[in-house]
Description:
By secondary structure, the chain is of the alpha/beta class. About 30% of the residues lie in helices and about 25% in strands. Helix 10 (about 355-365) packs antiparallel against helix 11.
Amino acid sequence: MRSRDIRRRVSAVMKDVSMQDNLPGARVIVHGARKCDVDGEADGFWVVFDGDRIAATGAGGGWAEHAASGDHVVDGAGGLLTPGFIDLHGHGGGGRSFDEAASGATAVDSASGGAFDTALAVHRAHGTTRSVISLVANPVATLERSLSAIADLAQHDPLVLGSHLEGPFLAPGRRGAHNPDFLIHPSSALTERLVAAARGTLRQVTIAPELPGGLDAVAEFTEAGVLAAVGHTEADEDQARAAFDRGARLLTHAFNAMPGIGHRQPGPVVAAIRDERVTAELILDGVHVHPDVARLLLDAAPGRVALITDAMAAAGAADGAYRLGSLNAAVVDGVARLVGPDGAPGAIAGSTLTQDQALRNAVRRSGRDLRAAVTALTWIPARVLGLEGRLGRLAPGYAADAVLLDEACAVRAVWGAGRRLA
Length: 422
């Protein structure tokens, strides 16, 4: 889709959301769809959204018994209906970055709120109904302000699940698109500061466990209710396994910014594959990980791979110059890379991926059946966050989050917490 078309669609989404903010929670009925979620597929499916929850589901014509005056009734016309997509790891979109939005002001201020709204609207238009806001390495005081801003945002936007600190506890040699000046070793005092700043909304933190204090930090964040992830690391298999034994349950963007799989040095990816407690993030854009290598991981760890975007500001926007935290990046043909001091392209700097494209890539390029692909975008990320009891299924009592797609898996409509988002 051309950037002009994307901007027009995002503007329409933002207008629609702002209009619906002033409406009472109307019931929505979607019928005549083909359902696909972790529980399987069903034709002639219908669902009733009552407020922010699913009130009833079924197949056939039974939906009519639930219809009442004032309900919004949508004919799915045989389209594919899935739970809303969940993105555990994203940095921005629509030309705006979450770091830009969060670092200078609270989320309720007009400047930062606008940046959040713009970036989130892009991903919501592509089916992502719940987002974890990722932050790159910055000075600790800046991260504290950003975490507080995201806590403010989550308070008034239930579709924002909280924050992800991708830095600053990273291995310098595996820093990727993070400023080396802001990388530090973890400590108990820093753990307490960052958890306190987030006010209960820090969802995950990426840690290189081989750093001094790294394993203790994994245990401390886990004890504080924060999901610890192994990533941006030089860890070997044994060090990664030690982190998993201390409580880490996630591998940050598998294969990227970590040792690969060697025939004598298995590395952290193999450690994650072997440990049934661990989920691996995967950026399935065809750039970060070759589709055949992605297929190996998906085959080796079925039901334990969560598709993420790791999207930066250029997702849903044009090629050109961007900032990722404090660093300059350039996007050429949809691929983002840091810009070196001499102007030469450097490390990959996030992606321009959206979750609907990840779904299509999983099916068309990495050999997943539709159910497995949808589950990797919905129930698996919900489970690793401990939210599998309310997100990731089209079933009564679950959140009224859904995506209606056409036969090519392009988005036709999106609902989040019962409200039409796209």
